[in-house]
Design goal:
globular, Pantoate--beta-alanine Ligase, Chain: A,domain 2, alpha+beta, single chain, 84 residues, 1 helix
């Protein structure tokens, strides 16, 4: 199995995605949508959409979808909880 899919690498990627998405939620709000568009001469166009919602009682939900010209579409979801 590729090192890219090791549990440690996946955990780091999910944590970074949640951290970046949570930082985009303005004060006084509970959700945000992030859009990122890219272009590469190797892979062509790419777009990524991330939806994050603070669901209350320490729960956070992240839904992510993306497309790039080389790999095609992909999607993912993450649910995280943090307590005091």
């Amino acid at each position: 199995m590729s090192e890219i899919f090791s549990p440690a690498k996946l955990q780091k990627a999910v944590h970074e995605s949640l951290e970046q998405a949570q930082a985009a939620i303005p004060d006084g709000h509970s959700q945000a949508v992030l859009l990122k568009a890219t272009y590469s001469t190797d892979d062509g166009p790419g777009v990524q959409a991330v939806y994050i919602k603070r669901a209350g009682k320490g729960w956070n939900v992240l839904l992510e979808t993306s497309y790039n010209g080389h790999d095609g579409p992909s999607a993912g979801a993450a649910v995280a909880w943090s307590g005091k």
